[in-house]
Write a structure and sequence with these properties.
single chain; mainly alpha; Histidine kinase
Length: 82
């Protein structure tokens, strides 16, 4: 009997990990597309110009963050899940 507790977790099967990564990538792409649409709709609300510009810029910043996350998770865009 050993008092040693293994600290390593078993790695998921490659297929399961690939499917999970593909699912996250798909969700991030969907969110980025939705944010683009939201930015266009926000610009057309008829709010004061500076307010509209700030709103659209913040939405575009969110899209940029998501695109960076996609670059990270796909190793620079070169990702083939299966």
């Amino acid at each position: 009997m050993s008092n040693v507790v293994p600290l390593l977790r078993p790695r998921p099967a490659p297929d399961a990990a690939a499917r999970a990564t593909a699912s996250v990538v798909s969700d991030l792409v969907t969110i980025a597309e939705q944010l683009h649409d939201i930015g266009a709709r926000a610009a057309a609300l008829g709010r004061p110009r500076t307010e509209a510009e700030r709103t659209v810029q913040m939405v575009l910043d969110a899209v940029t963050s998501i695109e960076r996350a996609l670059d990270t998770i796909t190793d620079g865009g070169d990702y083939t899940p299966f």
